Input
Amino acid sequence: MRKYEVIFILRPDLEEEKNAEVIEKFKNLIESHGGEIIKIDKWGKRRLAYEVKDFREGFYIVIQINAEPKLAAELDRVFKITDEVLRHMIVRENE
Output
């Protein structure tokens, strides 16, 4: 397994419950595909460097995981089709 850092930005107009629901969705996806969650950081609402999908702010979440490369590809696919996610990035950390 490799170590990854997953960063994603949720729309700022979502309610706290919906944020938690989306985070839980990705948490379940990681665990169901054999990944291990090391740490979840909720950075909260922050200003974006530039406008993304007509939003100036976003709710940042950082998740550190141990996972196989297939899971990283699956996460990328699901992030792309999830409307609540403005941007995402999956980075493999050096061992």
Remarks:
- Residues 39 and 64 are 5 Å apart (CA to CA).
- The helical segments are 16-32, 69-81.
- Strands lie at 2-10, 36-52, 55-67, 85-92.
- The domain at 2-92 is CATH 3.30.70.60 (Alpha-Beta Plaits).
